[in-house]
Amino acid sequence: MIRPILNRLYLYSGYAAAIFLIGIAISILAQIIGRMRGVTIDATEAAGLCLAAATFFGLAHTFGHGGHVRITVVIERLSGGTRRFLEIFNCLIAALAVCYLAWNVILLAIQSHEFNDVSPGLLAMPFWIPQAGVAFGVTLFAVALLDELFWIIGGRKPRYDHDHDLDQDDRPVA
């Protein structure tokens, strides 16, 4: 029951990343058009904020589709229980690191909100806004890693290890 919800969440995070990439293009086009008309438009901060959001919203979606770079020199030579143990260990370490990152980014966003931190540029945008997007994206990535960890612990092949459809069946690997 939770599988379709998580898959939809990862898919929507990919859509959010795409929307923020469009935001980067729009802010750059606005600067170009402004320069051609002799008007200064400082959209550099907006493009940077969109880049941060696109990057972190895209993590969970990319991970779910096996798009993250993996160095498999050692693990591809292993089989059976040794490979499974190493896959679990790798997911556990990654999940712990990303959960720690998510926790600290959430705290940073809360702290920025409490202190009313604003960006130093012309826009003077409150820092908590982009930090909240980053916090949400990193948290989704942490959920995806934990999801994959429990998937592998359940005796199934890692979903990131091959091309797949996220609605694949949930049969354990023999």
Distance between the termini: 23 Å
Question: Based on helices, strands and strand pairing, what is the structural class?
Answer: mainly alpha
Tally of discrete structural domains? 1
Outline the low-pLDDT stretches. Answer: 163-168
Mean pLDDT: 86
Main β-sheet description = none
Rg over C-alpha atoms, rounded to the nearest angstrom:
20 Å
Tally of strands = 0
Strand composition percent? under 5%
**What shape does the CA trace take?**
elongated
Query: Helical content, roughly?
Result: 55-70%
Number of helical elements? 4
Features:
4 helices; mainly alpha; elongated; transmembrane transporter activity; 174 residues; 67% helix
3D structure, described in words:
Helices cover 67% and strands 0% of the residues. The protein has 174 residues and is an all-alpha fold. The relative contact order is 0.15. It has 4 helices and no strands. The chain has one domain. The chain starts with a helix and ends in a 21-residue tail after the last helix. Belongs to the TRAP transporter small permease family. GO terms for molecular function: transmembrane transporter activity. Residues 24-150 form the Tripartite ATP-independent periplasmic transporters DctQ component domain.
